[in-house]
Specification:
705 residues, alpha/beta, GMP Synthetase, Chain A, domain 3, 5-stranded mixed beta sheet, 5-stranded antiparallel beta sheet, phosphopantetheine binding, 22 helices, phosphoprotein, PP-bd_ACP, Non-ribosomal Peptide Synthetase Peptidyl Carrier Protein, Chain A
Length: 705
């Protein structure tokens, strides 16, 4: 009888290694590195000269998100090898992963063609794609593979659990190329599901447990998976009918349906989309395998490492944490709490002796004081800290740099180019003179070109669009041929090489390092989330009967960076609009505030003037809330928690946590604050799905011990 997927024994915790209460949350979604919103329009021309003026101003509009709105096309279903060449471009069909040692020095690069780019001098023996993507059997099976809270899983147990899930998936009708949707929390069950899919050739597609039910239903309907794997709690948020749902650790799995087939694919990850729906990105097995070996080498991972498993499974960086670590024989350490407070993070880093931590930039900056103290007093002694997901200000990083001699890397990458494309090793002396940390140089097998508007490569120092070339490019967007063709293009000036047009503007400096300046479209980054404002605008417009809407980032708000939305016409019930959008969008995408305008400021081309709207957002002050007439004891308790974590009392019972300065880390701190008062810690999902104070107070009452 096959082993149940979740039948991994729960081993007792070793004495002296209790971590207390810990857990993480979001990781970088894989878009941009260092943002610089001030670089726009004519300012670009001043930097690049007349030669480069063509890449700025109105001509940028030709490749912006609006152009792609509503684009759909043939599905990627059934794509394999050369059959997918129309979307995927040149396939690297060989089944070996030899990575050559770099032969170009920086001096050679600066005196040769601009497309000759240095790569890290890392070399690997040839190994098959299947071996890389099924790494568990490569190592001593008695070694520890995963520590998940109080569960310790050896490589042998992990191998048996993976094989057991493979057998169960096959028994219910899942075969290679079929899509398996995983709605699971971070931890051992997610790792087993991922590895089982990769071992049998199925396509892994993770989703967030925090996604609103309506959004999750829409994404699953479009994905058309053969099976959904989840927990009993996760199943509560799934559509009641139409999908076969398998519960980990339980018997009686339903028969899989035929569903979509994507041959040769490893996984599908959703990113924010400009058409109103997230875009499903299909990444091939060959691209993933080459990335695994590249990261394992660049990070110097070994069997002695203890790697923090921090990212949510729905973020592609979770794969970058799991697969290279297991490929190298390292141990993965998954904290118990969904999102840890600063104290909880330090507890797990110290107690578990974490050697490698890959953290979102925004998260580390929020907890840097506590982390810096742990580094200075020796409680935590890592060898590698990797940061990424958004701009990395050098001055904010110095508190960490001054406290450790660990290697610190700034990582840049995109979902469409398999997670991470470049890294920059932070130099402590050099960083003292920098305001922003560079994106760095490419990983082996990847090249990034700086292109002008005509898609010709630009010389050192010239600003253009960053375009990624190499073995890590995704197959394209699932079921969207038009958007795939617009962003994954062949470039004649590069010998008809296939590249992904990132939309990021930047340049290569005299040392050969890439630097980021901004976006040529409207894409935003907020606390590690890659956000297409058009997705929010489409949802809001639908709720408002088709009114014109626009969303901008207010980066200098007193309570922290926030999204502000604008709409034309009469005022509406702001709370009702927030509630409606919370049913459609993740909490991070719901604007903190909506402002009514008599008319939307427009550019000559008919698009919203986002620069003017950003100025309006910065100048707009919401009226101070009036005191509540009724003081419910439960509301009073939660309000006290809000005051503690937000640091102000500018809210009432009808206020929205994420409108008044809240974000995921502060929500984690709120949950920790409430725990001793309630007798149990409220789940993060409860706080995210009930952001209004009065609603939150009622919801958390259910967790009282």
């Amino acid at each position: 009888m096959p082993t149940p997927a979740a039948a991994i024994p729960a081993w007792p915790e070793p004495a002296g290694t209790q971590e207390g209460t810990t857990d993480p949350g979001q990781k970088h979604a894989g878009t941009t590195g260092v943002q610089h919103a001030a670089i726009t329009g004519e300012q670009h021309a001043a930097v690049t000269g007349e030669q480069h003026a063509a890449i700025t101003g109105e001509q940028h509009a030709a490749i912006t998100g609006e152009q792609h709105a509503g684009s759909t096309g043939r599905q990627l279903a059934g794509m394999t090898g050369r059959q997918s060449a129309g979307i995927a471009g040149e396939r690297h069909g060989d089944d070996s992963l030899g990575v050559a040692r770099a032969s170009h020095t920086t001096a050679e690069v600066l005196t040769t063609a601009p497309d000759v780019i240095p790569t890290a001098a890392i070399s690997f023996a040839a190994v098959s794609v299947d071996e890389v993507l099924d790494p568990v059997r490569r190592h001593d099976l008695s070694r520890v593979a995963i520590v998940d809270g109080v569960r310790t899983v050896g490589y042998g147990e992990l191998d048996r659990a993976v094989e057991g899930m493979v057998e169960r998936l096959r028994q219910v009708g899942v075969s290679a190329g079929m899509v398996v949707a995983a709605v699971l929390p971070r931890g051992a069950d997610t790792v087993v599901t991922l590895l089982a899919c990769l071992r049998m050739g199925a396509v892994y597609c993770p989703f967030s447990l925090d996604d609103p039910s309506a959004r999750l239903a829409a994404l699953l309907e479009r994905l058309d998976p053969a099976l959904v794997v989840t927990t009993r709690e996760g199943a509560l948020g799934l559509p009641a009918e139409g999908l076969p749902v398998a519960l980990v650790g339980e018997s009686g799995w339903p028969a899989a349906r035929s569903g979509r087939v994507i041959e040769g694919a490893a996984y599908v990850i959703h990113t924010s989309g400009s058409t109103g729906m997230p875009k499903p990105v299909v990444v091939g097995r060959n691209a993933l395998a080459r990335h695994v070996t590249g990261i394992a080498g660049r990070f110097g991972l070994t069997g002695e490492d203890r790697v923090l498993l921090f990212a949510k499974p729905s973020f592609d960086v979770a794969l970058e944490e799991v697969l290279p670590s297991l490929y190298a024989g390292a141990s993965l350490i998954a904290p118990r709490r969904e999102v840890p407070t600063a104290a909880e993070l330090v507890a797990v880093l110290a107690a578990r002796r974490i050697t490698v931590a890959n953290l979102p930039t925004s998260y580390l900056l929020a907890v840097r004081a506590e982390v810096g103290e742990a580094l200075r007093d020796g409680r935590w002694s890592p060898r590698l800290i990797v940061l990424g997901g958004e701009r990395l200000p050098a001055d904010a990083l110095r508190e960490v740099l001054d406290a450790t001699d660990a290697t610190v890397l700034n990582a840049y990458g995109l979902t469409e180019a398999t997670i991470t494309s470049t890294v920059h090793e932070v130099d402590r002396e050099e960083s003292a003179a920098l305001t922003e940390v560079p994106l760095g140089i490419e990983l082996p097998g990847t090249r990034i070109h700086v292109l002008d508007a005509g898609r010709y490569p630009l010389p050192t120092g010239a600003v253009g669009e960053l375009a990624v070339q190499g073995v890590g490019l995704a197959e394209g967007y699932l079921a969207d041929e038009a958007t795939t063709a617009a962003r994954f293009v062949t470039v004649p000036a590069l010998g008809d090489e296939r590249v992904y047009l990132t939309g990021d503007l930047g340049y290569r400096d005299e040392s050969g390092r890439l630097r980021f300046l901004g976006r040529r479209d409207n894409q935003l980054k907020l606390r590690g989330y890659r956000i297409e404002p058009e997705e929010i605008e489409a949802a809001a417009s639908a709720e408002l009967g088709g009114r014109s809407c626009a969303v901008v980032l207010d980066a200098q708000a007193p309570t922290g960076p926030r999204l502000v939305g604008f709409f034309e016409g009469a005022e509406v019930d702001g709370r009702a609009l927030h509630t409606a959008l919370a049913l459609r969008l993740p909490a991070a995408l719901v604007p903190a505030q909506w402002v009514a305008l008599e008319s939307m400021p427009m550019l000559p081309g008919g698009k919203p003037n986002r620069n003017m709207l950003a100025a309006l957002a910065a100048a707009h002050e919401e009226p101070a809330p009036e005191a509540d007439e009724v003081a419910d004891p439960q509301v009073t308790l939660v309000a006290e928690g809000w005051r503690e974590v937000l640091g102000h009392n500018r809210f009432t019972a009808s206020s929205h946590f994420f409108q008044v300065g809240g974000h995921s880390l502060l929500a984690a701190q709120l949950a920790a604050w409430l725990e001793p008062h309630l007798g149990a810690r409220p789940p993060m999902r409860v706080l995210f799905q009930n952001p209004v104070l009065a609603d939150q107070a009622r919801a958390v009452q259910a967790v009282r011990a």
